[in-house]
Amino acid sequence: MRVLQGTVHDLSEEVANLDRQADATARLVSGLDAQLASLDRDVQGATARLYVAQKELDGKTVSLQHRLVDIYKRGPLYTAEVLFSAASLGELVTRYKYLHELALRDRSLVRRVQQLRDDVLAQQSLLVRLRGELARNREEKSSEEQRLRSLQTERAASLAQARQQQDRTRARLAQIARDEARLTSVIASLEDARKRAEARPRAPAPAPSTLKPRASTASPAGTGTLAWPVNGSLLYRFGRVVNPNNTTTRWNGIGISAATGTVVRAVAAGTVVLAEPMGTYGLTVIVQHGGGDYSVYGSLARADVRKGATVAAGQALGTVGSADPDLPPHLHFEVRPGGRAVDPLTWLGKR
Fold it and tell me: In what helix (H) or strand (E) does residue 277 lie, and over which residues does it extend?
C-alpha cells in the first residue's frame, strides 16, 4: 500500500505537470498561429505594394522610352537646335536649365521607382523567410504538444491502474482485518465449547496443554521449546502495523518463507479442530493442544488432516502454499495460548 500510494502520488504529479506543459505549449501554438496570420497579412500587403511599384516602374520606363525614341528621331542636333533657336540669352539659359532639369528628373524618377521596388521586394523576401521560420517553429511546438498529450494519456492510464490496484489493496487490507477477527472469533467459540464441556457434571479432568512448558512472554526469540513447523526465513513478524491509510492491521502470527509443497508439521500433539479455507488465510489447519492452547497453520497448498483427527508432534499437517498474491509462498503460523494470539517466536526454539 505504501508503494502504491507513492506511485499514485508520483503519477498524479506527473500527469498534472504534463497537462500544464501541454496547455502552455498549446497556448504557444495559438500565439504562433496569430503571428502567422499577421505575417500572412503583411506578406499580402507587401505583395500588393510590390505590384503597385512594379506597375509604376513599368509606366515610368515606358514614358522614358518614348522620350528617348523622340530624341533619337529628331537626331543628335535637336538639343543644339533648341538652344540656338532661342531669341535671347535669357531664353537660351532658360531652355538649357529646362533640358537639364528634365534629364535629372527622368533619371531621378527611374532610380526612385527602382529603389522603391527593390525595398518592397526585400521586405517581402524578409517576411516570407520569417513566415517560413515561424511555420517550422509552429510545427515543432505542435508536435511537442501532441507528444505531451500522448504521454499524458499514457500516464493517466497508469494512474488509473495504480488507483485501481490501490483500491484492491485497501480492500484486501480490510479483508485481512476481518479474517483476523473471524479467526479470533472461531477460536473464542472453541474455547467457550471447551469450557462448557469441562464444567459439566462428571466431566473428565482436562488434559494439560502439550504446548507447555512454554517460554516467558519476555523471552527473546528462539528461546522456546517448540520445533519450527517449517524451515525458512521470516517474511513478517507478529504485531500491529499502521497502514498508510491510517488503518491498523494486526499480524497475529509470523510468516515463514518456504517453497511451495514444503511439508508443514505440527509443533505439538493435539486435535485438529478446523481444516478449511479461511478467507485471506487461505487453506488453514487449527490444532487444539489442550488447556485452551491452539496453533494455527495458514496459507497451505494442501491439508493432509481432517477435522477431529488426532496428530502427534512433528506429524505432517499439509504443505506450504501461497494465499497472498503479494507475498511469495510461505506458512502463516500462530500460537494462541488461552485463545489469545502471542508472538510465536517466543515459543519456538533455535533452528
Answer: strand 270-277
Is residue 57 within 8 Å of residue 120, measured between CB atoms? no
Query: What's the pLDDT score for residue 77?
Result: 47
The residues, ordered by sequence, that sit 6+ positions from 308 with a Cβ below 8 Å of its Cβ are 271, 272
Q: What are phi and psi of 212, to 5 degrees?
A: -85, 155
Q: Please report the DSSP string for 82-138 in residue order.
A: HHHT-SSHHHHHHHHHHHHHHHHHHHHHHHHHHHHHHHHHHHHHHHHHHHHHHHHHH
210 residue type, one letter: T
Dist CA 124 CA 62 (whole Å): 25
Instruction: Name 61's Cβ contacts closer than 8 Å, sequence gap at least 6.
Output: 110
CA dist 205 and 307 (Å) reads 23
Which residue(s) pair with 285 in the sheet?
275, 297
Q: Label residue 279 exposed, middle or buried (CB < 10 Å: 0-12, 13-18, 19+).
A: middle
CA distances from 49 to 13, 37, 111, 322 (A): 54, 18, 17, 84
Pairing relationship of beta strands 283-290 and 316-320 according to DSSP bridges: unpaired
pLDDT > 70 in the chain, percent: 82
Residues lower than pLDDT 70 in the chain: 64-100, 102-103, 212-223, 242-249
Measuring CA to CA, which residue among 305, 304, 300 is closest to residue 278?
300
Q: How far apart are CA 6 and CA 263, in angstroms?
A: 38
Q: Provide the pLDDT for residue 88.
A: 64
Q: Which residue is it, cell 533452528?
A: 351
DSSP run (H or E) holding 139: helix 89-199
DSSP conformation class of 351: -
pTM of the shown model: 0.59
Identify which of 308, 229, 219, 306 has the alpha carbon closest to the alpha carbon of residue 268: 229
Whether 297 and 316 have beta carbons less than 8 Å apart is answered as no
Element (H, E) at 32: helix 2-74
